[in-house]
Amino acid sequence: MSIRTDHPGTLAQDRGRAFSTRALSTTTTPGDGHAARATPIYLTAGFVLDDFDHAHARFAGESEDDGFVYTRHGNPTTRTVEARLASLEGGDEAILLASGQAAVAATLLGLLSAGDRLVSSASIYEGTKGLILEHLGRFGIGVDFVGDPADPAAWEAAITDRTRAAFGESIPNPRNDVLDIPTVAGIAHRHGIPLVVDNTLATPALLRPLEHGADVVVHSASKFLAGHGSALGGAIVLAPADRWDQSRYPQLAERTGPDGLTALDRSGDRAFAIYLRDLVVPRLGAAPSPINAFLIGQGLETLALRVERQSENAATIAAFLAERPEVARVDYAGLPGSPHHATARRLLGDGCGSVFAVTLAGGLPAARAVFDAVEVFTRMTHLGDVRSLILHPASTTHLLRTPAELESSGIGPGLLRLSVGIEDVQDLLADLAQALDAIGRPVPAAVEADGSPDGRKAPALPGPVTGPAARAATSPVALAHRALTAQEA
Ligand SMILES: Cc1ncc(COP(=O)(O)O)c(C=O)c1O
User: Fold this and answer.
1) Is residue 161 exposed (0-12), middle (13-18) or buried (19+ Cβ within 10 Å)?
2) How confident is the model over 305-336, as pLDDT tens digits?
3) Quick one: 322 and 244 in the same domain?
């Protein structure tokens, strides 16, 4: 992959170098005399302060060394991975957190105060939707969802004089309705507010939102950035805040330093970045373990290769599924027939990603048959793994949504979500072909008497719970459990 972008976040020695080269950039970890080429893991809670003056200088940000004091505020391993990610995303700086959910929460907490409003695409991850509606809402922050994110007039109409941020996802799941970032960024900036883009599914290998006008990028680094599925992580990547009006955010001017200046006076376009890094993120407390930071850094080194292969595999599989008689629709922006194909071609690089939805004509029984029949695909709630994964959102991640909400999210009972991995594509095609053949296969007689094909109860799709199960299903414990598990995947 030969993408060349130079920007302030790129290390001096990497200027002019392509994406894949920068992904392997020399570590920026301060030298400890051993010259390790791989990123060393600094597994320590704190850092030694030499004497009284050194302690003060580090806390005041005036020390001449790396300035680390406590891993919740920063760590050399984490800082190395942050620098590499900032370079790949074309940002000024990046902040690594313990999960993608923490990255979204910290960004929105940093931007929004009680009485403010967020304008957001309605086509976003369930966990983010829950955070906005149920938690930010409880603190007096309102949201205006844009039902058709491809319609610029709908964004324009949803912005009020209290709106302080716009939010969307570059490749939303499961609809694959690719966000027209330049258009939405233009609208946001006319209103003096930043556009935050969740770039988890596109990754900087396919799309760098900051280059298209977005101001803040967030990631679930647990997904493609890591790729191996063995660590959770999140990231915030920031462009200089020169396209939106930071003076409308009182939290950036709340505190004056010993010099009487506020962060805004002192830091100009970096005020929001500093506010996030120094205050919001450490106080929220979701610092990544240096081990997880290391694992994410390992993933970044092979990101371009993986994403290229995954996108190729996904395009082949989507085309195959679209031709199958059992399939009602395939929501993949890479298919020429997709209403989002033109936007995808305009914004995405070498590929359209590898997470998409297939809706089976046979509805729930067909989805169940395919889900249970796959052998190479793994049944699991996760995305962007090197392994291919399959999930039935209506009976799992979206269990709490009403039928109307599911319909407006484009999630029917026959919809399966695929996250395509790096396996040999012929094995993946053969697996899906044999799984589709399982649709309508007679149910084994031994378990038919039980009323469900494999001896389990039919999946509980949203709807009124009645009969003896009602009390158990609506008990506080069951509800709390469902609320915690249903949204986060
Ligand atoms: C688009 C998107 N953003 C954010 C998240 C949250 O990330 P994490 O699970 O790392 O907290 C997810 C998780 O699936 C996601 O798909």
Assistant:
1) exposed
2) 999 999 999 999 999 999 999 999 999 999 99
3) no
